Amino acid sequence: MTAVLETHGLGKRYRRRWALSDCTLEIPAGHVVGLVGPNGAGKSTLLNLAGGLLAPTAGTIEVCGGRPATGPAQLAKVGFVAQETPLYGGLSVADHLRLGARLNPRWDDAVARDRIRRLGLDPKQRAGRLSGGQRAQLALTLGLAKRPELLILDEPVAALDPLARREFLQDLMAAVAEHGLSVLLSSHLISDLERACDHLVVLVDSRLRLSGAIDTLLATHHLLTGPRRDPATLPADQEVVTASHTDRQSTLLVRTASPIHDPAWSVARLGLEDLVLAYLRGPADEPRRRKLEVLR
């Protein structure tokens, strides 16, 4: 499996604080990967490292087979749309397309102009006078017309209304299907991830907590409810993610590739939102917690 992004022990420190720590991750090419985590978890740091906007303090990172931002050829492989969708307010839509053509050797002017036409954007309109949704769409157009191998999106729809957000994601998915690029999308909105992504990466407290194909992750996590039990008595292949107890009942979220045969348990599957929230809340409350392994 070809990796579009691969890290080993990656870390970024600001003075005494680690914004990202000991991150070992492999993201396969050709997928839309959702990156999720609370504020300060390290999401933007990871994206900026991948885009070559930051240099790592520790470990290594490779993007599209090379180190980020090591030269024009490597820069051409990655498109980046930041949360604030930075554009030049005094330049028109057409000016941005001309600038993109000058700066990007793989620029696809036909793709850019066709998207602008379909979106109904006035080429003469200055970017500073566009709505938030229009600015996001223009920024996405610039990222797509660059024809990157990897498109990085750092919460690009955070400030958009629900309709504009859905239209943005629909356009993104159409572009992915048409051009076959890989996407790394950061978002706080699980509904966006469910709509657009087939892989998931969860960061918490600057560390990687979970990574894998969404279908596989959902199939290998089970919510067990039954008589109160010490999680340490579970089979060795059942990793306890979270545990809660009343006087008589235990509720455990376990991760395992094997079927749950114990008849004492009532077994339920989780949706993506419940799965993500379980990992955001933190580790199991029992002393014994098996080491989390990244699911490839």
From TrEMBL:
Molecular function (GO) terms listed? ATP binding; ATP hydrolysis activity
Q: Which SMART domains match?
A: AAA
Question: Which PROSITE patterns does the record associate with it?
Answer: ABC_TRANSPORTER_2
Q: Does the keyword Nucleotide-binding apply?
A: yes
- Fetch the InterPro entries from UniProt: AAA+_ATPase (IPR003593), ABC_transporter-like_ATP-bd (IPR003439), ABC_Transporter_VariousFunc (IPR051782), P-loop_NTPase (IPR027417)
**Residue ranges of every copy of the ABC transporter domain listed in the record:** 5-230
The name under which this protein is listed is ABC transporter ATP-binding protein
Q: What high-level taxonomic lineage is stated for the organism?
A: Bacteria, Bacillati, Actinomycetota, Actinomycetes, Micromonosporales
